Amino acid sequence: MKYLLLLITFQAFALDGPALFAQNCVLCHGPKGLGDGVAASSLNPRPRNLMSDPFKNGDTVEQIEKTLKSGLNQMPAFTLSDEDKTKLAEFVKSLRSK
Fold first, then answer.
1. What does the DSSP assignment read for 46-87?
2. Which domain holds residue 55?
3. Mean pLDDT for each 10-residue chunk of the chain (98 residues)?
4. Domain of residue 28, CATH code
5. Calpha distance 77→68 (Å, rounded)
6. Residue 7 lies in a domain
7. What is the structure's pLDDT at 14?
8. Tell me, what's the pLDDT at 96?
9. What is the pLDDT of residue 5?
10. Structural domain tally of the chain?
11. How many Cβ atoms from other residues are within 10 Å of residue 79's Cβ?
């Protein structure tokens, strides 16, 4: 029973794509993914505009996950779970259609 409660508690705190983006990406990419986060001006190369700039490693969910896993330029590799990387990649991909 103790483990079931722990599992339920953990699942209650699981983050969705937008929350993962806010927690991990907004500082550089900005709240809308435009590459205009508060840290963007100090980075070279600047963070890409996730809504319109081409993605260096491709823009499928799998390719975005690979970028999250390995990092790119000044963007570090993410230490998220595979499930959270997928949620984040799906959210980043969804920014293309907004």
1. PPP-TTTSPPTT-SSHHHHHHHHHH-BTTBPPP---HHHHHH
2. 15-95
3. 43 72 96 96 94 94 96 92 94 87
4. 1.10.760.10
5. 6
6. no
7. 53
8. 86
9. 43
10. 1
11. 10
The DSSP bridge partners found for residue 75 are: 72
Contact of 82 with 91, CB cutoff 8 Å: no
CA 96 vs CA 6, 14, 47: distances in Å: 37, 24, 15
For residue 75 the two structure tokens come to 């963007």
For the chain, the residue count is 98
CB 59 within 8 A of CB 96: yes
89: left (phi over 0), alpha (psi -120 to 50) or beta: alpha
* Alpha-carbon gap, residue 5 to 3, rounded angstroms: 5
Give a yes or no: residue 8 inside a domain: no
